[in-house]
Model the fold of this input.
Amino acid sequence: MTPRSFLLTPQLADYVRESSEPVDRIAADLIAETAAMAERGEAPATMQIAPEQGAFMRLLATALGARRAIEIGTFTGLSALYVVSGMPADGSLLCLDVSEEWTAVARRYWARAGVDDRIELQLAPAMETLRALPEVETFDLAFVDADKTGYPAYVEELYPRMVTNGVVLLDNTLRAGRVVDPQTDDDRAIAELNASLAVDPRWETVLLPMADGLTMLRKR
Ligand SMILES: C[S@@+](CC[C@H](N)C(=O)[O-])C[C@H]1O[C@@H](n2cnc3c(N)ncnc32)[C@H](O)[C@@H]1O
Done:
């Protein structure tokens, strides 16, 4: 089972999901395969984004007319599948991850959806890949969903590489509510980042209480 918003009752979480775009066959199979991997102890299924969050990200990619996008933290590929589905036929998505095993699942589903030719996957620590990218305004949309203590540095590296009005999405920015009373290094990193982004004049910042918290940053 993919994560639901911790802020909603199970009944309301179901209602939110049922009131958004339905999950298509390929996404449903990917969710089921990831859940089966989790049952075998091969992957934590809770890492996958919720389908209603995917529907929102696909809508946003389309509304922005995003032609170049980047994802930090791909796992078995569900968020990438949603984002690339919202991009035009000549759009492209660069995915950064370190796991060959988990992204092998992603590649299979991207091929089945016919979007594999629009996705480039780079397997290396994301900071290395990011720093090697030219510091020019390239990306219309970015999604950050990897190691939480890395987020502040990812946001800094993304800034010069985003177009003006480009949008960066940061996942898990409520940490299941623990941002108000941080328990772990990950919680503290996100709580400090949230506080600094709220007053950072370079970005217009909105923290959406969707799923586990999804922060939207628009580059001014
Ligand atoms: C929460 S999961 C991503 C979930 C994915 N967005 C989805 O919807 O299924 C986090 C991913 O980040 C990757 N990751 C963790 N640390 C990383 C790093 N330093 N560089 C690149 N990828 C990293 C992990 O291998 C994992 O696949």
Summary: The chain has one domain: 10-219. Residues 25-39 form the longest helix (15 residues). The chain has a mean pLDDT of 96. The first strand starts at residue 68 and ends at 72.
